[in-house]
């Protein structure tokens, strides 16, 4: 898992901690600036700026900045002139933020004091790469300070684009090291309760509640896996997750399908806050911060039995197929709490399955044509019906939901007769990834999920394997 916050190029440039400070303003007027190869120190009607020689309060050798602007192509633009503009400015007799509200906290603290230089370029509208190099009193680059950069800065006609670049200078080679060492304990599963019992009849509900304790009071995440014993009619479906002090209890409900012995595994992980991704598993966070192989979870394998006793004769398993009324419903049966948009036209034709013509249909088709499904619409993934998942909107580009949409559509296409030889392994990998990460994906798993999603999307739209249905 990688815990990095995505930033665009300008964000990265503006946030690069600087060694001295350069503030560059770009104007989007139509007048042209110095052409490539011209003397940057010569006066020009297209450049403005105040050059003052002042002392540098930081005590280093920086006396000013050399600004350089290069014309580059904007997105979709071709054959732009290879123009370049440059100018050198001394540090101003002021410091930032200097009591200016617009610079306080954006990014400098109001009580800080940063030396800077400024140059105003008048440029043709377009995109530019910008550099600000700290120089000494003789105009030579200062070795101890970096060149600040911004790429692809856009200048618009009639408007001024202002950017702040920060250049980092080395300080004296002395410093302190403050080491804080904290202890983290793995959570421990303390109890498991079966209600009414781990022995039940097919068709009956069994509730399993696991309680775990974390000595450090961290929030906890549970995983439930069906290891062996054939299919359940439904479940494990999470019905309750509650925390009391350092203890957290999570309950799932399972409905048996046939007599037999089953094996389940419950795992519990402690969580930690990450600035970019919110709550993540502690062991993932540790591994990403250099503690390779760190583990911080507990697990337990559980038995569950569905009996063929005579006392089970009166208990009937749930039906395998939904039965829809002859009229259009407002909400389809077993769709959970989701209420479907009223402006969507659902098919209300007789429940006739599509011919096994070998072609594929998109997830949008299967979402709005549940009567054409070749599989029961009661089919569930992570406790939710496939139909309700298809109506879930991927909040902020949720990789799990996006993959689930394409996975469900692909499974329905295969069940309807489409050839799956091109995506068989991909479909199996998607199923494992979805079922193993019901409550969120790590950064590494997100990337894998999006790769699998793209392949299944291509399959469902006839770009890989069978053609799309006409």
Notes on the structure:
- This protein is an alpha+beta fold.
- 15% of the residues lie in helices and 31% in strands.
- A hairpin with a 2-residue loop joins strand 14 and strand 15.
- Helix 5 packs across helix 6, helix 5 runs parallel beside helix 7 and helix 6 packs across helix 7.
- It is flat, with a radius of gyration of 32 Å.
- The N terminus is likely disordered.
Distance between the termini: 41 Å
Poorly predicted runs of 5 or more residues: 1-55, 317-355
The topology string of helices and strands comes to HEEEEEEEEEEEEEEEEEHEHEEHHHH
The largest sheet is: 5 strands, mixed
Helix fraction by DSSP (H/I, runs of at least 4): 10-25%
Radius of gyration: 32 Å
Number of separate strands: 20
Summing up helix and strand content along with how strands pair, one would put the structural category as alpha+beta
List keywords for this structure.
7 helices, 5-stranded mixed beta sheet, single chain, alpha+beta, 470 residues
């Amino acid at each position: 898992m990688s815990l990095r916050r995505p930033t665009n190029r300008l964000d990265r440039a503006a946030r690069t901690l600087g060694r001295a400070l350069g503030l560059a303003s770009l104007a989007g007027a139509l007048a042209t600036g110095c052409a490539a190869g011209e003397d940057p120190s010569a006066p020009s009607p297209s450049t403005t700026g105040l050059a003052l020689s002042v002392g540098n309060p930081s005590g280093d050798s920086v006396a000013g900045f050399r600004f350089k602007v290069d014309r580059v192509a904007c997105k979709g633009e071709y054959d732009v002139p290879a123009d370049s503009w440059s100018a050198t400015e001394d540090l101003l007799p002021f410091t930032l933020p200097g009591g200016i509200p617009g610079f306080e906290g954006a990014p400098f603290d109001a009580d800080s004091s940063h030396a800077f230089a400024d140059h105003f370029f008048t440029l043709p509208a377009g995109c530019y790469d910008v550099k600000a190099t700290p120089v000494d009193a003789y105009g030579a680059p200062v070795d101890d300070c970096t060149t600040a950069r911004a790429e692809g800065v856009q200048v618009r006609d009639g408007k001024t684009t202002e950017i702040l670049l920060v250049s980092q200078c080395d300080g004296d080679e002395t410093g302190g090291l403050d080491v804080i060492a904290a202890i983290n304990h793995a959570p421990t599963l303390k109890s498991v309760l079966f209600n009414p019992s781990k022995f039940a009849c097919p068709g009956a509900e069994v509730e399993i509640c696991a309680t775990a304790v974390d000595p450090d009071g961290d929030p906890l995440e549970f995983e439930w896996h069906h290891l062996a014993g054939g299919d359940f009619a439904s479940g494990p479906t999470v019905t309750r997750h509650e925390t009391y002090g350092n203890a957290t209890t999570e309950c799932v409900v399972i409905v048996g399908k046939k007599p037999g012995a089953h094996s389940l595994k419950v795992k519990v992980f402690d969580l930690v806050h990450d600035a970019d991704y919110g709550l993540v598993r502690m062991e993932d966070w540790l591994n990403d911060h250099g503690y390779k192989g760190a583990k911080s979870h507990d697990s337990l394998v559980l038995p569950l039995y569905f009996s063929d006793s005579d006392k089970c004769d009166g208990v009937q398993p749930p039906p395998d197929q939904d039965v829809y009324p002859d009229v259009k419903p407002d909400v389809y049966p077993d769709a959970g709490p989701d209420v479907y948009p009223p402006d969507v036209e659902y098919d209300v034709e007789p429940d006739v399955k599509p011919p096994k013509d070998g072609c594929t249909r998109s997830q949008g088709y299967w979402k709005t044509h549940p009567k054409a499904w070749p599989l029961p619409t009661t089919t569930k993934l992570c406790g939710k019906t496939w139909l309700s998942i298809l109506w879930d909107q991927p909040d902020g580009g949720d990789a799990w939901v996006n993959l689930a949409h394409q996975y469900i559509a692909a499974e329905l296409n295969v069940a309807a007769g489409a050839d799956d030889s091109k995506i068989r392994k991909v479909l199996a990998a998607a199923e494992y990834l979805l079922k193993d990460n019901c409550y969120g994906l790590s950064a590494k798993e997100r990337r894998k999920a999006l790769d699998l999603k793209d392949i299944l999307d291509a399959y469902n739209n006839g770009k890989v394997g069978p053609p799309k249905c006409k």
